[in-house]
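Q: What structure does this chain adopt?
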Amino acid sequence: MITKIKFQNHTVKIKTLKLNLKLIIFLFGGFTIFINSNSFAQVESVSQSKTDDKIISHPNSTEAVGNQINFKNETGNSIITITDEGSNKGSLTLPQMTSSPTSTSNKLYNLNGSLYFSGSSLSSTSSIDGLSDGISTSGSNSVYLGLNSGINDDSRIGSETEISYNTAVGVSALRKNGQSASPFGVKNTAVGFEALRYLDNNAADENTAVGYQSHLNNESGYQNSAYGAQAMLNYVGGYGNIGIGYQALKGGSGANGQYNVAVGYNALNDNVTGNKNVAIGYKAGETHTGSNELFIQNNNNGVATPPLIWGRFAPGTIRVQINAEDVITTDMFYVNGSAGGTSNWSSSSDIRLKKNIVTIQNALEKVKNLRGVNFEWKDPQNHKSGLQMGFIAQEANKVIPEVVDDVSEYMSIEYGSITALLVEAIKDQQKMIEELKKEIDVQKSRK
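A:
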């Protein structure tokens, strides 16, 4: 193959002869590129040449050969141009390529206007990673740091739609944003490897993700905050969520819940569509998938245990359970074990709050039909140990069903309400005693 080298108006034809060539070129005021290669060159003919070839015959000559050197292929297209820029400065021009070479190892090339070596960009522009801020006609004020961080910001060149106020620090952070033709996320902050990598939707605004793959799969979610490695990892949508800790609020595939707060390792880990949950502690609410619930928990050694505090937030009600069993009751407040305080427990009893008021009928008969028992709980880890006193709920339900809760899986009794029954029973009994006393007095008077 014959290659032509053109020195301004001087052309040299070259073909096969092995020559070791080391080319050192200084670019952009001190930036140095070293190209080492084995070249094959031999001067075949010279047209319009000088009597001496100052490059080959006299390498130390001060005589110039021209202000430009072109290396061309067989079709006559330049593949390298070296230009004398004056004032002892020179430049190297590489033709622009639209795709990377098949092999990029140890190769210098111009890809779409940016200089690359061994597959990595060497370009220097107005931003930290080579992406310009304000590249669309109205978007601005974004900062990207890291390989492929915010790389699709540049895809919006010429777009009238803003891609603004984003900050991404880390490899592939906010990588996809701006890739689609539709509008895209703004006012997002991503710090960490692949943080918010797949975000690319016009509604996906004002998210904050800090940590390795934090909020990785978010596509359209907004106003979410994820702090910790893989926090909110699988949330593709949803809004107003907060996940703090390793895989906190990680979520199942396609998760899109709203207004959830998870603080702790794996807290609310399996939540997919649940809303308005609060989980605090190691693996708190890890397997929970519902809504409007509270978990304060330390799931020791990964063994499933009841939360220390469980609650339910529902319209008009708040339910809280302390050291609750796995089966949640319908009680508004539930304590698994003993409870105490420095004063008496008060219950509402104002007549203005009541209706259909009648005196308990057959109170004494009902008391007679109740069976008081001594017993021990089968699971002292969840109930008070030792000998206990009380009723059997199933038996009491046949006599005084109004104080027995049979809605939950395990029945319970309102022991405090039985006081009213006992009062009326004593009154009935006292009435009987007084009537008997009168009869005795009558009998005594007849003697």
